[in-house]
């Protein structure tokens, strides 16, 4: 079964149509990449899938259900990482466990899982305020914040934008491990085709509001 | 200088020996202002959150009205509340005039725009992406609201501190609607006015010291809350 199916999606901002009758299907376990220049609508597409943005025309089905009908239930099966890392004004640990706590997981279990993941990714100061993190550390923390909830679909917007080469490699490893261990489906938007070609099964180019496949 | 020092010593004696009337005045002031600030906060903070989240045409006009309300002259508020509560007024049948309840109503009207105005400004400063992070991580509407309030906590506590300061030091409205009745509606500020007119400077000074002390105590407690890491009740479903 298709995990995500987008049919004839159209989105405009004022007079400018960003996405024109766009179609996309993602199957469970796929790692898909979308690249294109800045401003072509990659972020908008991810935001629409994550229900943060309205759209005028088209249909989006996630796990067979229209995303407009069962918002919270479906939203909880996805997680999105924004291009600019945005963390709550609290400790690293509290940031990471937020997604687990809102799902009713008790603090002790959430903390245990978070500490394990943070350690694996080289973040040791759990009680440090998130505002004191470096750019690379903050990017890793937002990623952990999203992957810790074991979502079915992970949406990554320009995940390598603030990372150096070493951290990009680490990010690629995390994504591949997720796919191996959880069979997580990942959709990555990037302006840099090179990075996403390394790890994606399928790569699309977004241009003039439409997607064209460049790698199968 | 002699009169001042004499009054100061006398005032400390009144405080130290817990003068019955001074105690009654202090407790009434505390009760009226605290009740007004709590009730106003319970309505103003959620309303500020609602306004902050919504996009609507008249938003700028509404915010301008709120900001104007922050500068409401207490005497005018007192006059309007008096007219509503007086025997021939619209709410005269409630028989609230010259009661502590009337004083609370007047103070709610005075502090409400302050709490909503400053809270709104604090909530608006919470970045859109921070709010969206809460949503994308699966927060319910209630959890999202609590998270936004938590992010704006410092500004919201400042709103409450400012409101309490305004309420406890206010005299114009409560003297009109409360009537400054001994052992019934006499508050710290109204008593200071009365005792000064009578030439009872020691009592007036004692009340002044208590007023400042009370304001300090509340501000200290709220500042402590403001600076403290608070685990809000965000996670209950």
List the SSEs and their pairings.
The complex is a heterodimer of chains A (216) and B (237).
Chain A: E1 2-13, E2 16-27, E3 31-35, H1 42-49, E4 57-62, E5 65-66, H2 71-75, E6 78-81, H3 92-101, H4 107-120, H5 135-147, E7 153-157, H6 165-182, E8 185-190, H7 193-199, E9 202-207, E10 210-215
Parallel strand pairs in A: 3-8, 3-9, 6-7, 7-8
Antiparallel strand pairs in A: 1-2, 1-4, 4-5, 9-10
Chain B: H1 2-16, H2 20-53, H3 59-69, H4 74-85, H5 100-124, H6 128-136, H7 141-151, H8 153-168, H9 172-178, H10 188-198, H11 201-227
Helix pairs in contact in B: 1-11, 2-5, 2-8, 3-5, 4-5, 4-9, 5-8, 5-9, 6-7, 8-11, 10-11
Please characterize this protein's 3D structure:
The complex is a heterodimer of chains A (216) and B (237). Chain A is 35% helix and 30% strand. Chain A is α/β, with parallel strands linked by helices and 216 residues long. Chain A has a 6-stranded mixed β-sheet with strand order 6-7-8-3-9-10, with helices on both faces. The mean pLDDT of chain A is 90. Chain B has a single domain (2-236), classed as MetI-like (MetI-like fold), CATH 1.10.3720. The model of chain B is unreliable at 231-237 (pLDDT under 50). Chain B has 237 residues and is mainly α. Chain B is globular, with a radius of gyration of 21 Å. Chain B has helices at 2-16, 20-53, 59-69, 74-85, 100-124, 128-136, 141-151, 153-168, 172-178, 188-198, 201-227. In chain B, helix 3 packs across helix 5, helix 4 (74-85) runs parallel beside helix 9 (172-178) and helix 10 (188-198) runs antiparallel to helix 11. The chains are: A alpha/beta (216), B mainly alpha (237). Chains A and B meet through strand 6, helix 3 and helix 5 of A and helix 6 and helix 7 of B.
